[in-house]
Amino acid sequence: PAILSEIRTVYTHYEREEPFKATLFRDLIPYSDLSLPSRLVGLAFIIALLLACTRSVFDQKEEARKAMITLMNSYNDALKERNVEKISSFFLRSPEFMIYADGKSLNYDDVVAQFHNVFPNFKSLENKWDTIFVSVLNSNAVAAAAPFHEVFTDKNGNITRLKGVATWSAVRVENNWKFIYGLGSEQLDTIK
To answer: Strands, E, within the chain: which ranges?
Structure first.
């Protein structure tokens, strides 16, 4: 009955061909019969809610940025230990995982096999990121680029110094960050 009454009122309004008189706060906005202070409190609440949402997005992006830096530094620590199982735990075991290094593309199994083959030949390995540049794609995907310097010492004590650039993409899976794509290029570093 109440809805029918409102429909009849609108129909009667148009039958008389009276111009529709609407004011912003009275006819178009729900609860417009509230007093001005009540409307201002409501407006303040909406603004506070929008600010909270904005802060939440910024917080999520900052959290993702820090997670990528932590992931890259933890990966370096695992490289230093030459622990293949620990290193492979940083990679997403998935068909999408791919690393491109110096013109070669390697899937997850290829990368793990390469670490197993190479690490026994080294006495030590150190990698240092010069600077890590992070771009947050969304709260679950991050990309980073970092120039680096590496020092390999083989079992005979021969030292090889390399410099290059690595880019990584990481995704959050079940609240853990994993590398999904990598791209690296390196050359001999003549500076000692």
So the answer is: 98-101, 104-106, 122-129, 133-138, 141-154, 159-173, 176-188
